[in-house]
């Protein structure tokens, strides 16, 4: 029965279209009205397409500006990661020098030079937005810390950082390298 209804509906639409065409031939204002309505619909469609294209262009421009800004801000990330190991080795070398050798006149110039180099590296890091992550005493933050071990202690709140194995660094608001830490746990 639905086929019959569909057929009847199509026949009615065809009859209406034929009647309108016959009327349009007899009355030019009807044809003109139909043409104006068709043009108005095309205009509305074109305006919508232009608005969509403008919005898309603006979104592409914003995305490109953000990517360019990020590229400028974080361009040195790989290089900075590589330099962190140099800084770590320099710090370890300075810590390995015994106190009595630090006071030795023959080595004092070397020690002062190494310390100045360490300060200069820290200064360069600061100028480029690279900062150390403060870890000791802070609660473990998996976004900035990597827990390497648990340390049983009653002196600190469980879950807080009590030992720093390797310093972590941020470059502006992004993690450059997580801090490797020991985390407090309740003693057995």
Quick structural gist:
The chain is α+β, with helices and mostly antiparallel strands and 188 residues long.
Notes on the structure:
This protein has 5 helices and 6 strands, in the order αααααββββββ. The termini are far apart. The chain has 188 residues and is of the alpha+beta class. The radius of gyration is 37 Å and the shape is elongated. A 3-stranded antiparallel β-sheet has the order 1-4-5. A 3-stranded mixed β-sheet has the order 2-6-3, with no helix packed on it. It has helices at 2-26, 28-74, 77-96, 99-103, 105-127; strands at residues 130-132, 145-152, 161-166, 169-171, 174-177, 179-185. The model has no long low-confidence stretch (mean pLDDT 87).
Q: Rounded to an integer, what's the Rg over CA atoms? A: 37 Å
Give the averaged pLDDT, no decimals.
Answer: 87
From the spread of the alpha carbons, the general shape counts as elongated
Helix content: 55-70%
Give the strand tally: 6
The biggest beta sheet reads: 3 strands, antiparallel
Helix-strand makeup class: alpha+beta
Strand proportion: 15-25%
The count of helical stretches stands at 5
Oligomer: single chain
**Strand neighbour order, sheet with most strands:** 1-4-5
List the secondary-structure elements in sequence, H or E: HHHHHEEEEEE
Poorly predicted regions: none
How far apart, in Å, are the first and last alpha carbons?
Answer: 82 Å
List keywords for this structure.
single chain, 188 residues, alpha+beta, 3-stranded antiparallel beta sheet, 5 helices, 64% helix, elongated
């Amino acid at each position: 029965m639905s086929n019959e209804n569909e057929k009847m509906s199509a026949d009615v639409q065809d009859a209406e279209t034929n009647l309108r065409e016959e009327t349009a031939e007899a009355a030019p204002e009807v044809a003109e009205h139909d043409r104006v309505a068709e043009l108005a619909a095309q205009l509305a469609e074109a305006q919508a397409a232009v608005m969509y294209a403008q919005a898309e262009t603006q979104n592409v421009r914003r995305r490109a500006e953000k990517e360019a800004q990020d590229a400028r801000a974080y361009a040195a990330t790989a290089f900075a990661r590589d330099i962190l190991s140099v800084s770590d080795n320099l710090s370890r070398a300075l810590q390995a020098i015994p106190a009595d050798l630090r006071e030795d006149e023959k080595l004092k110039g070397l020690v002062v030079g190494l310390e100045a180099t360490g300060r200069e590296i820290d200064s360069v890091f600061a100028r480029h937005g690279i900062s150390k992550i403060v870890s000791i005493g802070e609660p473990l933050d998996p976004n900035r810390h990597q827990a390497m071990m648990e340390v049983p202690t009653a002196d600190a709140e469980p879950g807080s950082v009590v030992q720093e194995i390797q310093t972590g660094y941020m470059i502006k608001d992004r993690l450059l390298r997580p801090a490797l830490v020991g985390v407090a746990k309740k003693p057995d």
